[in-house]
Fold this protein.
Amino acid sequence: MTVDEAADVAGQPGFPHLLSPLGVRGIGIRNRIVFQPHFNCLADVHGMPTPDLTAYLEERAWGGVGLIVDGSMATMYEGQMSRKYVAAWDERSVELNRRTTDAVHGHGAKVFAQLNHGGHTSLEHPPPILWAPTQMPEPSSTHTTKAMDATDLRRAVEGFAISARNLADAGYDGVELKIAHDGLLRSFASPFFNRRQDEYGGSFENRMRFPLECVAAVRESMRDDMALGIRLCLHEYTPFGYELDYGLRMAEHLESSGLVDYFNCDAGSFSSFWMEIPPAAVAQGFFRPLNQALKAQSDLPVIAFGRIKDADLAEHMLATGEADLIGMARQLIADPETPRKLLEGRANEVRACIACNDGCLHAVAQEKPIRCVQNPAAGQELLYSERLLVRAAQPRSVVVVGGGPAGLKVAEIAARRGHRVSLFERENHLGGQVRLGARQPHHEEFAEVVHYLEAAVRRLGVEVWTGSDVEADGLLELEPGVVVVATGSQPNLPPTHRQSASDPDAGALARERGLTAGPETPGLDLALVYSTDEVLTGATLPGEHVLVVDDQGHWEAAGTVEFLAAAGHRVTVITSRATVGSELEGTNHAMFLQRVGQSDITVRPLTGLRAVEEGRALLVDVVSGEETWVSVDAVVPVSWRRSRDDLYYRLHELVAESGATVQVERVGDAAAARMVQTVLLEAHQMATVL
Amino acid sequence: MALTIAVCVKPVPVVTRLDPGTGRLDRSGAHRMNSVDEHAVEAALALRESALGGEVVVVSVAPGELADTLRPALAMGADRAVLVSSPQLEGADLLGTSAALAAALSGIGPDLVVFGSWSGDGNGAMLWAAVGERLGLPVASRVVDYVLRDRRLTVTRQIEQGSEVVEVELPAVVALSGEVNVPRYPSFKDVVAAKKKPIDVVETAPDGPVAGTTVLSLEPAPVRTGGIVVEDDGHAHERLLEFLIERGVL
């Protein structure tokens, strides 16, 4: 019996705590799962909620979540961290927000809104004027702040009050104030950021005065049946900031005011933003001690936070009394249906967040609408929600060649639409490059991309053939209506390089026809040159010193550097750009550099590769043009990959010759090597029109 | 010595879920060939190859719309498939299924009938015994190794105390464990060829009752309760040891 079969036979475990209701200030929440507030960048450039924003939240309500916390929303123009933060102070937002509250309530969920004044933090470049208790930049920024005067303080409190009133009018069930990883209120509470000597600083009580004035103003401005919560940073995780004991003291002080109905835990700051929205390198459940500590001292309901994606962990945390509610943001971005699937005994169908931060955090930090690697519909539910999938009027025979993420996604969506789908994968396992990427240190969860897709296609009855290398002429004998070529890509080393022995040269036809370019650096066909695919499939590299050339900027390069270092090599990584891993999302990049600093890895930015010879490589300083030979035992160039598209071209020719009416498409890296996020979206789009 | 080898395989649901209404397996979703049966097919193919000829016939009892779940066996190299399908077999248990299989096998006249030891959906592991009984053939179960010489099959059986070696004369029934071999991956050419191999759907049902059991009630397995959580403060190992010693484990 395989593990999967054993789990199937054993049946589904229940989630009695996670799926039980809870009242907060008399507001009945149907289960303990909370969609945590986060900037999704779906408002328009005037901070007005859009139909996309409503659809984004409605999708999670439909998916069964108990409570949604909508936001953050801005309390005034000067505290709006991006023009695309919902402008809660502006009464024009009321009717637009009402669309959201009506839609969410229509699916049986409750919805609060979070209010935040951005204070010393902004996503805009350059930032607008930044407000703070004391003039100084937030250390992650070069931009300094304005020390607030009495008028500013009064206006800021009014901003909270007006916004709360608008939210009440818009039909929200509660309001949450952010004294958390960004914004003005935490900076007032912080001994580091607040150096004031007036009644708003100098002592703990004085530092808490301004946040409490805002809390009181909000309480007075909303209906009595609305809940008031605090998103509270319990630990700043910076060398200069406060730690858990101070965070707990803040909580105690806020609770003793009698104005607060619940706490929503949080940690980190812009100066430690990898702890705000922790990437996969931070262990799941890392922040449990913070939740536990607050729950232990508080009589109020506590929402746990911190990379909780696993329903069993969530259930355990509730069962053992660590928290009253479980906050999830990214898990519900990745799979809005998570709660519904748990409820229906389909826990093994949940699509897990991989904590890559590429679609969610990376996009919105650049003020671009939220996206998700795992969920192509995230932020564009009106176009791609799985609820919009329609059965094909004419079921077709769809043959997918390639069992990487692109092929699997096409197969999943096509099968869901009622097509008869067969999928061929030449390797004995599905997954393509995702399987390789997941072998890099800290990237185990990346494999969830394939775990979900493989389970889905098998559940849907897709005929899956692994270890089966497709031949073009045989494909037509299968009498397909559509052939989707999803054959992936290959590191762009010369066709004479060793890799072609185990992985036949990709793109030979394209090269003949001038449709792809080869690498031009001399020496890349030498035996000391290794492709990333060779490295990650377990090739033993000679010698100690490996030179990695990062002309890619993402994990294919950076993760391979760490993979080699973990294997005991002394690694030098060069890049012609200003930093290694230049395309990595910020939290990932920061933690990558932290790990590099603790490893036997030498980083040489602004350095290019000119040539490789046996035992040495010629490097060039891209600023000065100065060339240097360095001794190396192996070289791993990571550049763009070339499409494995020979089958696609041959099939087109065969179809034309045979006169058969077969639609031939290519998808994913077979069309152009890209990030998995765009590949999965493209595959989804393609499968919806087959 | 050309052999006719019949391999009995079962389409099982990809997701095993009980229908609380009927108390039976929910068979509304996609099906696949029972995973241990792939080992049975592999063994049959290997035996045919070592016998330098013969025929491997896949036999199954299932609704006709599940015929394609037999295709992987044909792609691996089986010559043809016979699917016994009848509305009367709906809800059949060991009684009806063994009768239907035995009838189909009688028509084929195999030298050897090969089963996977158990089915992955209902965890049944008796069908081979019932079929052997109906056909009056010797049965060797839980087979982890085998050698065929002339018409004598020497098999190693896994038993609780270790293993035993027994010999049966063909015709016989064997039920194989998953450890017996590694099933082959069909090549693309094999997959294409399998599309053209015949699957004969036989729409007959055996005389007599198809089910001798009735599900009276169904209870989900009790949810496991919390247990004891040991937070490691540097002394967790001591508490674990105490726990095990208290209960006489150590």
